[in-house]
Amino acid sequence: MKVERQYFDSSPATSSVSQDPIKELPTVTTLQRPPTGTRPGVRPGVVGRAGLYAVLLANAAVVAVFFVQAGFASNALIVLGRLTGLYGALLMAFQLLLVARLPWFDRRIGMDRLTLLHRWTGFSVLWLLLAHAVFITFGYARSSALDPVNQLVDLAETTEGVLRAIVALAVIIVVGAVSARWARRRLAYETWHFIHLYTYVAVVLAFTHQVAAGTTFTSSSVAKTYWSAVWGGALAAVFAGRLVLPLWRNLRHRFRVTAVVPENDDVVSVYVTGRDLGRLPARAGQFFLWRFLTKDRWWQANPFSLSAAPDGRTLRLTAKRAGDGSAALRHLKVGTRVFAEGPYGAFTTLHRTRPDAVLIAGGVGVTPVRALLEELHGHAVVIYRVATDQDAVLHGELRELVLAKGAELHLVTGPPVPDRLAPGELARLVPDITGRDVYLCGPPPMMNAVLGSLRELGVPKPQVHFERFSLAG
């Protein structure tokens, strides 16, 4: 194992000689923000989640009121079928809100957590709607002389909207199947996403079925108006967050590539500029979905973090070659038009709870950490985990920033086993780690190991900030 302590706070009490000292203090240009220290009151993440759950619970209560007002069927199975159908559909609308990428929720909760919640809500929708179909079918079969299969056929032939509901359920089953982990690992993101788009067809079919056949809505014009408002609001959120806002921002800023700089054989930095970037609400630590509008890549979006704090003039992303999309970046030409969706992510100083921080990066996960270091105020300790010194991307920039800000940098190198960031090692590198905010970004195995170390050390959960960059959860 090699742990290189490169820079310390330059005060007389703590200064030491670096193995590779910098003779002159570098110039660090960032978009300055007010100092950020301990944030009193309720944490932004708690506010964001409370807002989501309040929306869901309030609508669940309204649905219950309308359901009771419509009256109960004599058959308990039909009652259960109607109730599971209502709440399954309500969760479908809630799912749309989760993936609408509304900035207020995204900055407080993060796309990764919203996507994960969307995933598990989707499975809940699937089971509720399956239960709805089974309860309704068996409930009506109990009241007739038909077996369940013939009863379902009869309902499809004689009841308005039931055939649409069957098609919607079939679509949801297919989408649920391809979203299971075993299937998701085997599908390209673009394939999975294309299949997932059929969910919107299911949404329309399910809504029209409910307002046409649902007793809760056929018996009350107020309930039907309310239900239309719920679904209209959910679809409007998706339309605004995923289409209108990205289009407006790209028309306004007109992003273009200004430089492509190889950092090493596998890593490249791309500089992007545009009009009026000072009004783009991007923060250090956030990421964009980047589409470089070349003839062979315009259709492909990739999530890359900003590797430098936004300064109102230029955005920079730094990516490691890990697939066709990232490998093609070094061949971009200056002047290439860019369609950028974002900024996204909650990996920012908005969530700070302590004046001082620890930034832990692994591999190319250093990119948002390097950007955050520019924006952070207070004392910072940076721990950068790589296999070899040659793998330390942007290491020179980190060293300059650390010296300029009076921070510490620890370069930790060596093979993954034994764990170089085990609890004892972290406590040795940062003795007061439990009193600091911890920002973590790196490969999933490394992040999981470090999160375990932080739990073992007793670092309070609100002080630990991380984000998993996965579009499909």
Automatic annotation (TrEMBL):
Keyword Transmembrane helix: yes
Cofactors required: FAD
Membrane spanning residue stretches: 50-70, 76-99, 120-141, 161-183, 195-213, 225-245
Originating species: Streptomyces viridochromogenes (strain DSM 40736 / JCM 4977 / BCRC 1201 / Tue 494)
Protein name as catalogued: Oxidoreductase
Subcellular locations according to the entry: Membrane
InterPro entries reported for this sequence: FAD-bd_FR_type, Fe3_Rdtase_TM_dom, FNR_nucleotide-bd, MRET, OxRdtase_FAD/NAD-bd, Riboflavin_synthase-like_b-brl
SUPFAM superfamilies documented for this protein: Ferredoxin reductase-like, C-terminal NADP-linked domain, Riboflavin synthase domain-like
